[in-house]
Amino acid sequence: MVEQKEYRVSDIKEEYEIRKIVIAEGLEFHENEIREEAERIKEKYSGKPEEKYVQKYYLQYLKPPLDYLREKIGDNFKIEENPGQSDDLISFESLRKVGRYCSKEQKVKFVIMTVVSKKDFKKALETEGTHVIYDGHSRYGRGACFAIYEGKVPEKYEQWERGITDDEGLFRCGYQYVLIPLEDIEKHSYTFSPVPVENGPLPSEKNHPFSRHPYARRKLSEISLPEDLSRRIFPKSSLSPSNRYYGLKREGKWHIILNAGWKDTINSPFDLGATELKCRVFCLFGCSSRLHFWNIVRRKEYKGWGRPKPPSDRYAYFTTAPSDSRLAPLWLYYLLTYDEKNNFKSWLDSLEYAKRETNKKLRSINAGYEVY
Hints:
The protein is built from 9 helices and 13 strands. With 372 residues, the chain is an alpha/beta fold. It folds into 2 domains: 15-155 and 264-364, no CATH class; 175-259, no CATH class. The strands form 3 sheets. A 7-stranded mixed β-sheet has the order 2-3-4-1-5-12-13, with helices on both faces. Strand 3 and strand 4 form a beta hairpin. Helix 1 (31-45) packs antiparallel against helix 2 (51-59) and helix 3 (65-73) crosses helix 8 (327-336). The chain is globular. The N and C termini lie far apart (63 Å).
């Protein structure tokens, strides 16, 4: 007769849930750029009255997310500098680093991957159950923006707009017509698609769906472009025979209306319309992303990626104002250090905790923006 063994609850090892987080580092938000920016600021204020303030409220948070987590959490947070392929990783071509953390309180194993290409950003969004964080520019409301480079980011290049390859340039998720400062086009020398006056007046909708970005819903002027800018217009169908385009003056600077959009764009399939969002969490942490993208992502008149009831999926978070590189490290720190058991349960409580605590910290350091 086989002896029956009695098991106590404490003898049973509970299974951990694996949660995959992808940080998509946008243009100028690669980790080396963040370190260099921190060094520039440190040098700028060294020995000056503002030095202690800058260190306390800014520099101690201005770090690549994985570095910040390793510093704050300690040895329990592991960083793989040259990650190989394993069953718990997503196969990304531009994978840079992997962070790992096991939360005994949550009964969750976190795997954090950093990528830098537009193609891998789209892949992350289309991967079932991921938590995707975009950390980069909003490009005045045109979308997420990427580049692969070594050393310093090129100041003048097509990656600041539509890009040339599948790895760089805009992943579009904004309104059809977006207002762009002329000085931005001059500074970065990218091609652009203005709206000729010969195309007729732009729509002036009073309700959703709006085709104009909120900043562009004003009376427009007709502006002419200098020859050096006219040469950068693409496609040629956007050229005005009379060299007159729609624009307006905002904050003392001349802006021009560009064709942008979120679906059927010049960047398709690298736009929101051509992307099947299978991720569980989408954090658009570019500047003022609530203004630029919330309606486009959430409202039924656009992408319509709304949360189900009860909220078990399709979580999305945005920023309330111009933001910076302090946000992603803080968000991840509070997400990983949530201390309630939530394996194989709704992620909502841990996400809302991260949002609440991140916003407390952002207010305490006078960041000027919060997570929405």
